[in-house]
Amino acid sequence: INAPLLYLQNNCIMTSKYNIITFLPVNLFEQFQEVANTYFLFLLILQLIPQISSLPWFTTIVPLVLVLSITAVKDATDDYFRHKSDNQVNNRQSQVLINGKEKWMDVRVGDIIKLENNQFVAADLLLLSSSEPHGLCYIETAELDGETNMKVRQSLAVTSELGEPGNLAQFDGEVVCELPNNKLDRFCGALHWRECKYTLTNNNMLLRGCVLRNTESCYGLVIFAGPDTKLMQNSGRTKFKRTSIDHLMNTLVLWIFGFLVCMGVILAIGNAVWEREVGSLFQSYLPWDPPVDNFLFSAFLSFWSYVIILNTVVPISLYVSVEVIRLGHSYFINWDRRMFCNRSNTAAEARSTTLNEELGQVEYIFSDKTGTLTQNIMTFNKCSINGHQVEKSHRFDSQEPHILAQPLDFSAWNPLADRDFCFYDVSLLEAVKMREPAVHEFFRVLSLCHTVMRELVYKAQSPDEGALVTAARNFGFVFRSRTPSTITTQELGKEVTYTLLAILDFNNIRKRMSVIVRTPEGHICLYCKGADTVLFDRLHSCNHDLMNITSDHLNEFAGDGLRTLALAYRDLSEEQWEEWAERYHGADKAIDYREDRLAAAYEEIEQDMMLLGATAIEDKLQEGIAETITVLSLANIKIWVLTGDKQETAVNIGYSSKMLTDDMTEVFIMNGYTVQSVREDLRYSPFICLSVQAPVHSSLRFLVFFASFGGLFTTVFSHDPLSASLFSILISFLKESRSSWQAHALEADMEQEFLETACACRTVICCRVTPLQKAMVVELIRRHKNAVTLAIGDGANDVSMIKTAHIGVGISGQEGIQAVLASDYSFSQFRFLQRLLLVHGRWSYLRMCRFLCYFFYKNFAFTMVHFWFGFFCGFSAQTVYDQYFITLYNIVYTSLPVLAMGIFDQDVSDQRSLQYPKLYEPGQLNLLFNKREFFICIAQGIYTSVVLFFVPYGALWQATQSNGVPLADYQTFAVTTATALVIVVSVQISLDTGYWTAINHFFVWGSLGTYFTILFTMHSSILFNIFPKQFHFLGKASTLSQPLVWLTIALATVICIAPVLAFRFLKLDLKPQLSDTKKQWKAGGHARRSMGGASGPGGSGLGHLGRGGSRRSGYAFAHQEGFGELITSGKNMRLSSLALATFAARHSSSWIDTLRKKKHSPPAGDSSPAPSVAAPVSNSSSLIGPLETAAEQRGQTNADPQVGVADVAQVETGQCSLVVQVNTICKTLLTKYQVH
Question: Please, which residues have CB within 8 angstroms of residue 28's CB and are 6 or more apart in sequence?
Answer without folding.
Answer: 68, 72
